[in-house]
Design brief:
alpha+beta; two-stranded antiparallel sheet; 7 strands
Length: 287
């Protein structure tokens, strides 16, 4: 059985440590020492060059080698079995060539995008895109604008926070923002921002708010024994309505850049085609 031919554990580790870290001997010969063989495929010490971090001890290096050899053997056995079971009509050379071509092309396209793509998307572009495509952004679930604060019961001056919360003037909102930046576990105090209802519900104590009572519960403060929760509803967009631009802005920006990327690559292909035809580097043979 093949496994009996493969040393393991300390039996493998000791000779490897000797050949890598022992004194004397021909270094060139040791660097090409055979570590394992699986049906004709060989693993040698030289194949592991660069695998050892600086200042690795001989014991740690031996453990690395031992683990690598065991992994290599198993992968080589799997590869050997896969090669024996290749479909007769599978053209491996063509698959490799196609994969290589794809890697090279994708790498070049990435370089082109990094060098030439303008990644700036203005507010005007976003607004134009939104007006043309907003029908595609129908909400599947409700979204809300709200104030939300989660703060530990042990937080300092929490009574002041309660007082400011009860009287949300502009000055008190500034105080609340400063307090939350320093003491809150999490908070939402940007009144322009839209958030998925499910995201807000997951941050609140169970049962304190749901889609059914969203219309009747405008504000509450709750304590679960460990945290104080402050919630104030500002606006609701129910499902089936069109999402506001501010909610889908990042999604729209990515799509605009995607279209811009496709256009850039198409223009580059056309340029290369014209240059190739002009320089007679392209020949097309029609039937």
């Amino acid at each position: 059985m093949l496994w009996k031919q493969i040393p393991s554990g300390l039996f493998l580790l000791l000779p490897v440590l000797w050949l890598l870290f022992g004194c004397g001997g021909d270094g060139k010969q040791d660097s090409d020492r055979l570590l394992a063989r699986v049906y004709g495929k060989e693993l040698r010490v030289s194949d592991m060059e660069g695998m050892f971090p600086p200042n690795t001890s001989s014991v740690d290096s031996g453990l690395i080698i031992n683990a690598y050899v065991q992994r290599w053997v198993r992968e080589a056995l799997l590869l050997n079995e896969a090669e024996k079971n290749l479909p007769r009509d599978l053209n491996v050379d063509k698959l490799v060539a196609d994969y290589r071509a794809s890697l090279i092309k994708n790498n070049y396209e990435q370089v082109l995008v990094e060098q030439l793509l303008d990644s700036t998307v203005t507010e005007e572009e976003l607004q134009r895109f939104y007006e043309r495509n907003k029908a595609q952004y129908q909400l599947e679930k409700p979204i809300i604008r709200c104030y939300f604060i989660k703060v530990s019961n042990d937080a300092p001056d929490i009574t002041k926070l309660m007082s400011w919360w009860a009287s949300p003037s502009a000055a008190n909102m500034e105080r609340i923002n400063a307090y939350c930046d320093e003491h809150a576990e999490s908070h939402i105090l940007n009144e322009e921002g839209w958030h998925g209802l499910d995201d807000i519900l997951s941050a609140l104590p169970a049962g304190s708010l749901d889609e059914a009572n969203l219309g009747s519960v405008k504000e509450f403060r709750q304590n679960d024994g460990k945290f104080q929760y402050f919630f104030r509803l500002l606006e609701v967009k129910p499902s089936q309505e069109i999402a506001p631009l501010s909610f889908i802005k990042e999604q729209a920006r990515k799509y605009i850049l995607h279209l811009r990327k496709l256009k850039l690559l198409e223009e580059k292909q056309n340029d290369l085609y014209e240059v190739g035809m002009r320089r007679r580097g392209v020949q097309i043979f029609n039937e």
